Amino acid sequence: xxxxxxxxxxxxxxxxxxxxxxxxxxxxxxxxxxxxxxxxxxxxxxxxxxxxxxxxxxxxxxxxxxxxxxxxxxxxxxxxxxxxxxxxxxxxxxxxxxxxxxxxxxxxxxxxxxxxxxxxxxxxxxxxxxxxxxxxxxxxxxxxxxxxxxxxxxxxxxxxxxxxxxxxxxxxxxxxxxxxxxxxxxxxxxxxxxxxxxxxxxxxxxxxxxxxxxxxxxxxxxxxxxxxxxxxxxxxxxxxxxxxxxxxxxxxxxxxxxxxxxxxxxxxxxxxxxxxxxx
Length: 279
Fold this sequence. Notes:
CATH topology of the domain at 122-219: Immunoglobulin-like
Number of strands: 18
Strand order of the largest sheet: 1-9-8-3-4-5
CATH architecture of the domain at 122-219: Sandwich
Oligomer: single chain
Structural class: alpha+beta
Order of helices and strands: HEEEEEEHEEEEEEEEHEEEEHH
Helix content: 25-40%
Strand content: 25-35%
Largest sheet: 6 strands, mixed
Shape: elongated
CATH class of the domain at 122-219: Mainly Beta
């Protein structure tokens, strides 16, 4: 019984190792969204060569034979001169998220090349104010999960916050009441502590689709600055008023002093009338 269990474990280990090794050996091509992508394949084949999606092996995307090449589906093409030289590369003219996945090049009924197309994750920086709504575009129709990573010690705990599968939205309890699906995943009434990195990930293929660096600006420093400016202006106004009051008092005292001097000078210059002269 023990030997059978050991043998089973060894078999499972060998299968796992073989599968992992096979997947890592398959080449992949990663491009930016909407760039052209070239899936390379160099083999020997004198007959019909065609490319298909791995999951749709009966649907031809593009094909070549000794006479010409044909684009069966728009956006996919092969070049005849390259085909004649043994280069069966497939060109995808506009690589978007719907074109991600495995592609197979066949010569007759035999598979010659398997290539995986990947799209570089999108990166966006979002700056919003406290109380506003944060909208995260999902970019694909496949099921996704939204993962949050806090950039501050006071922020919420990091980890998965929501999953979206078509019209179905499931979020952690603290997000349920303020989340909805609009043009993307909308989180209402965000706070400065929720600044951080939000990652939209394809659940099926475990691929990162979009990375949002979110900055929720706290306007408290602005209010503090405005309050400081108002205090400074108040102090300046009081100082100016005080200086003006001192100047006015000084001038008033100066005027009073001049008036006293003038009155004193007027009394000393007046001559009294002699009684003899009056007779």
